[in-house]
């Protein structure tokens, strides 16, 4: 079991990585899925052999409320159908924590339940917020779970200039599910999961 990293330099590095992703030219992305709620693109990841996914959609709510539903906290478990448990393991200053969470099986359980331990950091970005995370090799792996690994990922949420009660939510996700899995199954699951994330989030914000 590794020791916890120093939170401040990790948070800075993570933020810088996400801002770099946010500036990748449109021409580098390929559309993976499009629904009424969101568009999902992908490009080969520079961190591992899978894809970096980008998801984007307009959400009818203010930035702070949306991010409160996404970042670690009591809201997330209520609405995110993929997440089955979440515990905050450590809390640092400045909106930083380490959380352990588990996800449900997917694709008729071809993808078995997964466990992740992520460092999470929420900070201001332009007129809105950025909530980002990266997995840590920390804590014992629980039985019946495969430990997955999230390379740098995060969600930018900024108010629309002409409609401040609406926000543009852009996510960057690159998840290494690990275990013996066909890559095609992972790719199918990721695109659908990200599109569903938007529709589930919108429903939760309306309640």
UniProtKB/TrEMBL annotation:
Highest rank taxon of the organism: Eukaryota
UniProt domain START: residue ranges: 10-207
UniProt record, GO biological process: cholesterol import; cholesterol transport involved in cholesterol storage; intracellular cholesterol transport
PROSITE patterns per UniProt: START
Pfam families: START
GO molecular function: cholesterol binding; cholesterol transfer activity
CC per GO annotation: cytosol; endoplasmic reticulum
Matching InterPro entries: StarD4 (IPR042555), START-like_dom_sf (IPR023393), START_lipid-bd_dom (IPR002913)
Listed SMART domains: START
Signal peptide stretch: none
Name of this protein: STAR4 protein
